Structures are given as structure tokens and as C-alpha cells.
Amino acid sequence: MTDALLARLTLGVIFIYHGLVPKLLMQNATEMRLMDLHGLPHSLIATAGAGEIILGLAILLLRRQRWPLWLALAALVLLLVDVAIFAPALLSEAFNPLTLNLAAGVLCVIALRARRIA
What is the distance between the alpha carbons of residues 87 and 106, in angstroms, rounded to a whole number? Predict the structure, then answer.
């Protein structure tokens, strides 16, 4: 298994997990608080979770396509900026968005650097 494929697989699992567990299965309090800070209904958490799962599946299943990786990288950067603006206290918590998004972003870059993954 190449490093790029391992990065892609790990990234796909991260997106699927974060869409499924904190958003769809658990309705995490932090997710609800972020919606409140934006003045958005909690029902959008499920939509965001479904979107993350779809992106994770695209990363895993469309291995010859680069757009899911670029979309993931853009989402990671934009969501990190959003948290820094609307909920900066989250950046100092254990297992925070800064370290998670940084690691996932690096996985995107590793996967993108590969020529083609068979």
C-alpha cells in the first residue's frame, strides 16, 4: 500500500466517522453550540453529517479522482477559520479542531502528491 493510498483511506475514515458519530448518532453538544453561534437550526447537523459521509465515501471510492481531496482540503481550512472566528475557545481543548484539521489537511496533501492511485 502506498503512502498516498494510506493517507486517502485514513482521510476517508475521518470524514465518515465525524459525519456519523458526533453528528448523526450522538448529536454532540459542541456541534449544537456551533449551530447556535451561527443562528442555524440543529436540524442542519444531520445534513452536515450526511455531507461529511458522502465526502468520505467519495475520497475512498473515487480513488482516481482528485476533486474529493481538494474539496476536503478546502472544507478543512474554511471550517478551521470558522471555528477560530466563532468559537476560538475550542482551539485550546484536547483533540481540538486545529490539530485534527491540520493532520487531515496534511493527509490531503500527501494523497494529492501522488500521480495516480490504482
Answer: 23
In whole angstroms, what is the distance from residue 14 CA to residue 100 CA? Answer: 9
Which residues have CB under 8 Å from 30's CB, separation 6+? 22, 90
Total count of domains within the chain: 1
pLDDT interval class at 118 (50, 70, 90):
very low
* Cα gap 69→87, rounded to integer Å: 26
* Range(s) of the domain holding residue 97: 3-113
Stretch 63-91: mean pLDDT, rounded? 96
The answer, as to whether pTM is greater than 0.85, is yes
Cβ atoms of residues 80 and 98 within 8 Å = yes
